[in-house]
Structure formats: structure tokens, C-alpha cells
Design a protein that fits this description.
By secondary structure, the chain is mainly alpha-helical. The protein is about 55% helix and about 5% strand. It has seven helices and two strands. The protein has helices spanning about 10-20, 25-40, 60-70, 85, 100-115, 120-125, 130-145; strands at about 45, 55. It has a two-stranded antiparallel ribbon. Strand 1 and strand 2 (about 55) form a beta hairpin. Helix 2 (about 25-40) packs antiparallel against helix 3 (about 60-70) and helix 5 (about 100-115) packs antiparallel against helix 7 (about 130-145). The relative contact order is 0.17.
Length: about 150
């Protein structure tokens, strides 16, 4: 349970958590995203005949997933019923949404990849991950001191 009495964090609680993150962790997130942007193939589908397809991620893609957790962008909440992928398909509109929505979307992507092979790969390919990190970056650089 969170301080608000709910089992899910409020937008304000998510922002408070983000404010407590040290700068080294933020820099690592920005660097991981830059490395993915520089890669030709941050992931590839593998698997042969008679084998379920699976994704092989580059080191940068795996690092980005870890960095999102390290900055507090992976939180406990009912991400499966959230509906953020419908509200923000391919990350659309995320730039104008509360930063907490970017955190919730990051959670849905990172946790979703454990249950659905390729969720992270799809988020890289369709721009969702770039929108998440972009929204976090704008919050960090322009809005963090507010509230």
C-alpha cells in the first residue's frame, strides 16, 4: 500500500520517487537510449524450425530496460488493466501526458516483455520506448523542480 492509502501509486507519488533518483542513473538512461538510437539492430528475432521464436536483444536494449527500473520508471501497479497502449499507441500523445503515464507505460513494456515475447522489441520498433524516454527527459530537464 502507498502513502495515499491506495495499492497503486498516484501521479504525485511517482514524481516524488523520480525526484529522489541520483544524476548518474539519469545519465545512464540517456546514454542507453542514445546507444539504441545508434544501433542498426537493437534486437532480432531468432529461433528455428520447431522452436518458438524469441528475441535476442543487444546489450544497449537490455541496459535500457535496467536503466528504466533504476530511475524508478518501473513501479508496482495493475499494468495489465491500465489501457495505456490504447491511449498512447506507439507513444503518441505521451509527450503531453503526465510523466507518471510515461512511468506506467515503461512498466507495462518492461513487465510485459516477461509475459509476451517481443513487447520490448515492439516498443523499440514503433517508437513507444523513445516516447517514454523523451517524456522522462523533458520532465527531468524542465519540470522536475515543480510541485
Amino acid at each position: 500500500m502507498t502513502p495515499s492509502g491506495s495499492t497503486e501509486p498516484s501521479d504525485a507519488e511517482i514524481e516524488l520517487q523520480l525526484r529522489m533518483v541520483n544524476e548518474d542513473r539519469w545519465r545512464a538512461l540517456w546514454a542507453a537510449m542514445a546507444d539504441i538510437d545508434a544501433e542498426v539492430r537493437p534486437f532480432r528475432w531468432a529461433g528455428g524450425e520447431g522452436q518458438m521464436p524469441y528475441v535476442e536483444y543487444s546489450d544497449a536494449a537490455l541496459r535500457l530496460s535496467v536503466c528504466l527500473a533504476n530511475v524508478g520508471a518501473v513501479v508496482r501497479f495493475d499494468w495489465m488493466d491500465w489501457g495505456g497502449f490504447q491511449r498512447h499507441p506507439c507513444g503518441e500523445g505521451l509527450a503531453a501526458a503526465p510523466v507518471a503515464d510515461a512511468v506506467r507505460m515503461a512498466t507495462a513494456v518492461v513487465r510485459g516483455d516477461r509475459f509476451g515475447e517481443g513487447t520490448l522489441a515492439n516498443a523499440i520498433a514503433d517508437g513507444t520506448l523513445r516516447a517514454i524516454v523523451g517524456r522522462l527527459r523533458r520532465w527531468h530537464d524542465e519540470e522536475r523542480g515543480e510541485g
